[in-house]
Design a protein that fits this description.
There is one protein chain. Helix content is 21%, strand content 40%. By secondary structure, the chain is α+β, with helices and mostly antiparallel strands. It folds into 2 domains: 214 residues, 2-Layer Sandwich (PmbA/TldD fold); 235 residues, no CATH class. A hairpin with a 2-residue loop joins strand 20 and strand 21. It starts with a helix and ends with a strand.
Length: 455
């Protein structure tokens, strides 16, 4: 395959500034139960590829399903690039590497019979419905996927990479009269099917929490000291801050260039935020990005200072910075965009008890159910929360929405826990119509003066 792609590129090198081909083979399994019934079972196989050409700053992009059409698709991409190009092409220089990255399974899901996967999901589906008489709706999902991606470029890159992912989870709605409360849980791993067998204890825990939230009082609005658990803190740093660190958002926006100026202090010297695709077994881990750039660990915040951002080759070239290997695409039908991988807050020194003990009135915000961001502003909803009273966890509360400015919130971090958790939630991050695998992580984090929009 690599030789075929390299030979195809060689004929067009002189007509463009840069040319690459990505080809992919994939196989997946998906099982879904919704409500009382099994909704779908599928095992799709896919293959195809894409061509991307650069000429005088203009890009051409064409995808295909049939390799016999490769020459004509290259012609199309080259023609597109030459049609729109009108300035200097700027790609940061990288070494044209050759590598073959293989997946090593601990327990290969492809060797598990489909009937056994479906049977396991049936058991979970039954368990959720039976966990409480207040359950009114249920969804149970399973998915696994394996892909092999081939990449060649006109600058000498020749790569083969294998990727995999295994995930199962459920969501539940508990209802009492007109009041609804939702909860969910997911387990996941890149290489070990046996993770699927670990969902059972989470079902009873989360169904019970959904039922308990029906009886909980709504949160009273105001400004509080908030302790975020690792899931909430990790999601906060991904959604509210991480996307601002993606350089394709920054380099053409003068206001974001000002806001995200490297060297700016945004928090205490104990605050460190990292994007690390090189992490072993991370849900968002990879060896090379979809431009053939070696993945790297990047400090976005170092000792409270904005210290880095995430790049494609083009954004790095245009901003005069170093490529980070964060150009990622959601399959061969999509062009690479600047994306996060495994993004987390490094551990601090505080224990959870230290965080609690001097809070007279505060909130412990747990997990994450949704929210949105608008540049510097955010609103996030934890799945559940507890009041903190006189240094102790108190009653369960619902309808909690945390809102504020991300940089003021980072500056208001008072304590960072010593209990870093990674692989806390299997993320599928959306951007530009593409969804890719990412992960978040954090220790507990205590933040003063967070506005809670409750009753």
């Amino acid at each position: 395959m690599l030789n075929q792609l390299s030979d195809a590129i060689a004929k067009y090198k002189k007509r463009v500034d840069y040319l690459e081909i990505r080809a992919e083979e994939s196989e997946d399994t998906n099982v879904q139960f919704r409500g009382k019934e099994m909704e779908s079972v599928s095992q799709p196989f896919g293959h195809g590829g894409c061509v991307r050409a650069l000429y005088k700053g203009g890009w051409g992009f064409v995808s295909f399903n049939d390799l016999t059409e490769l020459s004509s698709k290259i012609e199309e991409a080259v023609s597109q690039a030459r049609l729109v190009g009108c300035e200097k092409s700027q790609l940061a220089r990288v070494e044209g590497v050759e590598d073959d990255v293989k997946v090593t399974f601990k327990n290969d899901p492809r060797k598990v019979a489909l009937k056994d996967k479906v049977g396991q999901m049936q058991d979970y589906h039954r368990q959720v419905w039976e966990a409480s008489s207040l359950v009114s709706d249920v969804s149970v999902v399973y998915s696994d996927g394996f892909s092999r991606v081939y990449f060649v470029s006109s600058q000498g890159a020749r790569l083969v990479q294998e990727f995999s992912g295994i995930m199962t989870g459920f969501s539940v709605v508990a209802r009492e009269k007109d009041l609804l409360q939702r909860n969910s849980a997911t387990v996941f791993d890149q290489y070990d099917y046996s993770i699927v067998e670990t969902l059972k204890p989470k079902i009873n825990e989360r169904v019970t929490m959904a039922a308990d939230l029906l009886k909980a009082k709504s949160m009273k609005g105001g400004n509080y000291t908030v302790i975020m658990d690792p899931v909430m803190a990790g999601t906060f740093i991904h959604e509210a801050f991480g996307h601002l660190s993606e350089a394709d958002h920054v380099y053409e926006n003068k206001e974001l260039c000002r806001i995200m100026k490297l060297g700016r202090r945004v928090g205490s010297a104990s605050l460190n935020v990292v994007d690390e695709p090189t992490m072993k077994d991370g849900w968002g881990s990879y060896d090379y990005d979809d431009e053939g750039v070696k993945s790297t660990k990047t400090y976005l915040i170092k000792n409270g200072i904005l210290s880095g951002r995430l790049h494609s080759r083009e954004t790095a070239g245009k901003m005069g910075e170093t490529p980070t290997g964060n150009a990622r695409a959601a399959g061969f039908r999509s062009r690479p965009l600047v994306r996060m991988s495994n993004t987390y807050i490094e551990a601090g020194k505080a224990s959870f008890d230290d965080m609690l003990k001097d809070i007279k009135l505060g909130v412990y915000a747990c997990s994450f159910i949704g929210g949105y961001t608008d540049r510097e502003m955010f609103t996030f909803t934890p799945r559940w929360a507890f009041m903190i009273r006189n240094g102790q966890l108190a009653e369960l509360v619902r309808d909690v929405k945390l809102t504020g400015n991300v940089f003021k919130t980072l500056d208001n971090i008072e304590m960072i826990g010593n209990d870093l958790r990674l692989k806390v939630e299997p993320g599928m991050c959306g951007k530009g119509g593409q969804h890719i695998m990412v992960d978040t992580g954090a220790p507990h984090v205590r933040i003063k003066n967070i506005t809670i929009a409750g009753q």
